Amino acid sequence: MLAGAPSVVVFIDYQNAHNSAHRSFCSFGDDLSDCTLDPLKVALSAIAKRAPGGDLKQVRVYRGRPDPRKEARLAQVSDRQASQWQSDARVLVKRRPLWYPQDWGQDGCVERPREKGVDVALAVDLVALATKNAFDVAMVVSRDTDLLPAIEAVFDLHGPRVEAVNWAGASTLKLTRNSQVLRGHTLSRDEWNACRDRRVY
Question: What pTM value is reported for the model?
Answer without folding.
Answer: 0.94
